Every structure is written in structure tokens, then in C-alpha cells.
Amino acid sequence: LTVVMSLDFKNIIANINPSLANHLNVQSKSISNETLASLTSEVNSLKQLKQQRLERLQDLGSSLIDLWNLMDMPMEEQLRFNHVTSLVSSSIDEITRQGSLAIHIVEQAEVEVDRLNALKTSKLRELIFKRQNQLEEIYRNVHMDVDSETARQILIQLMESGSDLSNLLSSMDDQVVKAKEQASSRKEVLDKVEKWKHASQEESWLDEYEKDDNRYSAGKGVHINLKRAEKARILVSKIPSLVENLTAKIKAWEKERGMPFLYHKAPLLHTLEEYIISRQEKQEEKRRSREQKRLQDQFAAEQETIYGSKSAKKPLGNANTVPGTPNSRRMSTPSGRYGASIGKEKRGSGHVGAVIPVNYVSLAKDDQKCG
Fold it and tell me: Do 149 and 98 belong together in one domain?
């Protein structure tokens, strides 16, 4: 008993009978009935003290564990009092280690409990806001709406009104558990949402890519874009089935929970329906655009067939070209063929525009000769 509680054995014995304390004294020891009764009484007192100290350390150990768990204390600090918390589930007969129930052990545990209680208020406030951050992170990861500012204002009001911080922290822990469960229930739907969004993005990229007339031109990254376009076409072909499967999952989730599946504050099913309508309109617009281009190409080909050969045989000059231009000197006119001789006569006669025919016969001169 004295070893476990670090008590002075000699002093205890000396208080009962001084002669018993001096084992070097050869004087005979008194073993009277009175001495035996005193020893028995002391043993019983020590047993009671051992029980009291064990119960006290068990209470302190339980308080330490609760405070550690409440305040998320690091393991290093907890290990410092492992010799105390290890007694929590021990029976009186199991306590045999030297000094395990010493008074200084009890005092150290009491000081630590008092210290943690003093830190409890500020630490609990810190932990409550830490749980709020955890909640917001969970909601954000599964695309759920949360009014962070309002939630924090409510927490501050509860703290300032004197609410039990331990109960408030416990309530926050419950909210975190429920949020994790809700996030887990949304995971399957959200996985399909990500596949749908990726396919939609690739479809938009492919539309822009196919509008580029120079997409096949040699250049840096052309082969990369060609491979991406090939994969995008395969992915785009799967969009109808992706949308169908996603719609079925959303409806099943909503039926099971009796509430709409919200995604960024909006019902996801409604967003999906709008996407389907918008995609159909875009596909119809692309179909009309292709049809219009086909008709334009067909018309151009017909025009080429009708007018292409005539325009190829069209003479370079024009008979009505104004005289004096380079083409007028090459026209198939009498003046053009015989311009050298006739031109001189033309300038000499002084009659502008008079042209002498090639088969002209000077009848006037012959008549004069005959006369």
C-alpha cells in the first residue's frame, strides 16, 4: 500500500509504535494486542486511501479524455498523462505499480484538468467555427448551396447569448455527419454530371474546330487537334445516352428523398431539360446551315455549267470599242485591215468618217474621159 501511494512506511510504523520502526535495534519488539489493533487499523485506513486516490484519478482521467476529445488536443499532450488515463478502467487489486497512486500524480492531473477547463471556452469557439468550415467544404464539394455568412452570424449569436458551447459543438458534429451522408448519396449522380459536362464541353470545342477552314493546314499542334477531334466525335455520339441515364438517376434520387436535386441553387433536372432543348435547337441550326451551303454549292455548280464555256470563248476586244484604244487598232474592220494606205487617204481627204470601199471604181473619171 505504501509503495503504490509513495508513503513513508517507517514514519507510519513509528507513529504506531516507535520500537517497530528501528529494525537495527536489537531490543525486543512489542507485539501487544494494542499494537496489532493499531496496525490493523492503519492497514484499513491505507486501503481506504488507496481506493479514494484511485477513484479520484479515475475521475480526473475521464475528465482529461473528455476534454481532449472535445478540444481535439494533439496526441503528444495526451501521452503526458497516459499513466493517469490508464487507471480509468482498472480495479483496486490491479494497482500494484510503484507510485501509481502518489499524491503528486493526483495533483498534476488536477492542475491539467483546471488548465484545460480554462482553455475550454476559447478552444470550443475555435472548434465550432472549424466544424462550420468543414460543413461548407463538404457542401461545396458536392455542389450544394450553403449560406455561409448567415450560418456564421447565427453561431456568433448563440455563443454570445451564453449557450452551452459543448452542446453547440455536439450539434455541429451531428450536422457534419448528416452532411457527409447527404454528400455520399449525391456522389453517383454527380459522377454522371461530370461526364455529361465534359462531353458538352468537347462538343462545343468540336463545333468551333469544324468552323475553322484552316484546321487541316500544316502547323504546330495540328495532329493533336485531329486526335482530339476524333475522340470528341466519339464522345459527342454518346451524349444522348449520357443524358438519358443521368435523367433516370436524378428522378430516382428525388423520388427516394422527396426533394429536388439542387445543383448550384437550381434543380438539376430543370437544367438538364433546358440543355436538351438548347442542344436540339443548335443541331437544327447546324442542319439548316449545311442545307443552305449545299444549295449554294449546287447553284454555283449549275452556273458554272451554263456560263463557264461561253465566258472562256469570249473575245478579248469589242467591235464598239472607242477608236484610239489599243484594241481598236486590232478590230476586223476595213480600216483595220488596210489601215496603212487608207488612213493616209482618209487624212488627205479631210472627210472624217468617210471610208472608201475596197472594190471602189472611179466611174467619174471614166465618164469624163468618154465625154
Answer: no
